[in-house]
Amino acid sequence: MKKIFFTSILLLSILIDKSAQAQYGYVPNGFFAFAWDINVPLNNKDFIERTSFYGGKIEGRTFITPKFSVGGELSWNSSYQYQPKRTYQFDGGAVTTDLYKYVYNVPFNLNAHYYFMDDKLIMPFAGLGVGAMYSEQDVYFNIYNLYSNNWGFLLRPEAGALIKFGSNSTTAAFLGVRYNYATNRESDFNINKIKSLSFQVGIAFMQ
Amino acid sequence: MKKIAFLLLIVGLSFGCRKEPNLSNLSDDFLVATFYDEEAIFTDYVTYKIVDKVGIISNDPNSDTVLSTTIGNQLINRVKSNMNSRGYVNFPLDTSADADLGINIFTIKELSEGNVISPGYWWGYPGYYDPYYWGCFDCYYYYPYSYSYSYNTGTVIIEIMDLKNVDANNDKVRVIWTGLGNGLLSDYISVDLQYALNSIDQAFIQSPYIQR
Description:
The complex is a heterodimer of chains A (about 210) and B (about 210).
Chain A: H1 2-24, E1 30-41, E2 54-65, E3 68-90, E4 93-115, E5 122-141, E6 144-164, E7 171-186, E8 191-206
Antiparallel strand pairs in A: 1-2, 1-8, 2-3, 3-4, 4-5, 5-6, 6-7, 7-8
Chain B: H1 2-16, E1 31-36, E2 47-50, E3 55-58, H2 69-85, E4 89-90, E5 101-117, E6 147-167, E7 172-184, H3 189-205
Parallel strand pairs in B: 2-4, 2-5, 3-5
Antiparallel strand pairs in B: 1-7, 5-6, 6-7
Helix pairs in contact in B: 2-3
């Protein structure tokens, strides 16, 4: 009896293990992801060159095939930079002040992704997002504020990976890196196109 | 693992919020702007006269129309010392001799009404004790009044006029330079005076072309 019992336990444990391995092959129908978004500006550094650590994103994707998903995303990032007091010369005059420069971006896009290993614990992917970006620029000095906002077309190639937390887990770590290209323009602040590199670390809830 | 996931989510969302600068870190010094006539040749002038009183233009009905002599003279003397250090010669205002340049100084004091703040605006801010703290769990504070805040901005303006080339036919006196210092006023006259004096110095510093 004891022998049968231990044999059963052994068989069960093997089955559970097989099942666990099979779970790595579990392909979700889709997922929602929340991530911290770190944004490194690549141009317009005269306005703000500082990396933004204040950003995030919310994203949803649905799998059309095991290797291909489509989805949508909303993200945001903000950054500011203090400029100590200095004199700005212009034709016919000059102005002296210290100031804060501030930028707030809200890109949103539709996207499509390809997954290189759809049935593994780690699911690397590459994709492309196409959408629009709303951007605000502010300059604060003394008690005054110069403000502008603008819209641009957005293109963002992206690569990353979903790392499942375990065989039975429907949550996964979300890691991503991407290049953002937006056509926003603002002549007052000499902004012509907004290009940046961003890194995401977050969580995906799979279904 | 779920705990780690939840922790990551909280960290992500915490860092993800919109972050705006703390404007109270901006300097209290006046903003200083200068404008000049690009056709003017400042080396062509030798002498100047300057006003002996400093006016106040204000929308505050309680404001004086002229600065006190003590304060006004400090502003006038600061402009004089800057002009003298650039090589120009001061003629007293009451002398009959004509000067090449005339200098005006005046101030603008503007009383600005801020938005009406409804008391309770700060509800929920950290450090603000809501009625729950006082033991009244479903209560809210009731204010039988509302109020607004106001603030004063001050501006000191210096104008240099070309008296040497007055266009008598068209009754025109050309203003060839304007220096302007502007900012929020404090509650202390001595502090505001220092802002104004510093702004006069800065206006000349950023205008090196004012030189004999």
